[in-house]
Amino acid sequence: MKIKSYIKITPKSVYLNDKQLCFEEQGYNLITSIYRKYCNNYPKFFKMDMLSKVGFVASELLLSNETNRFVEREDIAVVLLNRSASLCDDIQYQETIQTPDNYYPSPSVFVYTLPNIVTGEIAIRNKYYGETSFMVIDDFNSEVIEQMITMAFQDYMTTVVLGGWLECSDKDEFEALLFLVEKDGQENMIEFNKENINKLRK
Fold first, then answer.
1. Cβ-contact 56, 162 below 8 angstroms
2. Counting Cβ atoms within 10 Å, is residue 133 exposed (0-12), middle (13-18) or buried (19+)?
3. Do 199 and 116 meet the contact criterion of CB atoms below 8 Å apart?
4. pLDDT class for 197, splitting at 50, 70, 90?
5. For residue 164, which of 91, 125, 178, 202 is within the disulfide window of CB 3.0 to 4.6 Å?
6. Are 163 and 181 in contact (CB under 8 A)?
């Protein structure tokens, strides 16, 4: 298995493969800036929770050089992991039901109180019909990330996995490290293993 491309986003920086993409904004505003510059044609973005927004823009950048995008694919899986699940949105939803005198549960917020919604957003956008899964673990663990993405290839139909680490504990605290991993990648591509996952995160 080989890494065809990768994207790394933190509140202060964006790297697509080995190239740093420059933005003046940081934190929450950085994610909106990435959307406006590299996508800007998917109004549903503004209804998403922060975890989904980060995952969405990361996937948009990761797939920006792919040919034949938006063609139905059953051989592409989406596998993501983090440690905070949908905590960012859970807190926001809790605020809407905190007191009996100000009780206004919002269905639009409740929708995003499941972390796997972001895998669905990515799959729907790109017409991927392979496996989608989101796993919550104690902390970033390159060995577990390698294992979970590798397991997705046990489905004989899967030839590509869009996967990796997608953490968001606050609207200004997030990290995306996503990979496009090919089962039969070319020789010049990066080997997909825990050592290289750690190197690319640094």
1. no
2. middle
3. no
4. very high
5. 178
6. yes
CA–CA separation, 105 and 93 (whole Å): 7
Beta-sheet pairing, 132-136 with 76-82: parallel
Which runs of consecutive H residues, i.e. helices, occur in 63-157?
87-96, 107-110, 117-126, 142-152
- 62-119 pLDDT tens trace: 999 999 899 999 999 999 999 999 999 999 889 888 888 888 888 888 899 999 999 9
Bridge-based pairing of strands 19-21 and 76-82 is unpaired
From the list 139, 118, 122, the residue with the least C-alpha distance to 130 is 122
Instruction: Say whether pLDDT at 135 is over 90.
Output: yes
- Mean pLDDT, rounded, for 29-37: 97
The strand pairing partners of 161, in sequence order, are 77, 181
- Condensed to tens digits (0 to 9), the pLDDT of residues 14-26 reads 999 999 999 999 9
150 has pLDDT over 90: yes
Q: Which of 126, 35, 16, 123 is nearest to 79 (CA)?
A: 123
Among 3.40.47.10, 3.40.50.970, 3.40.50.720, 3.40.640.10, name the CATH number for the domain at 2-201: 3.40.47.10
Greatest Cα pair distance, the chain, in angstroms, is: 63
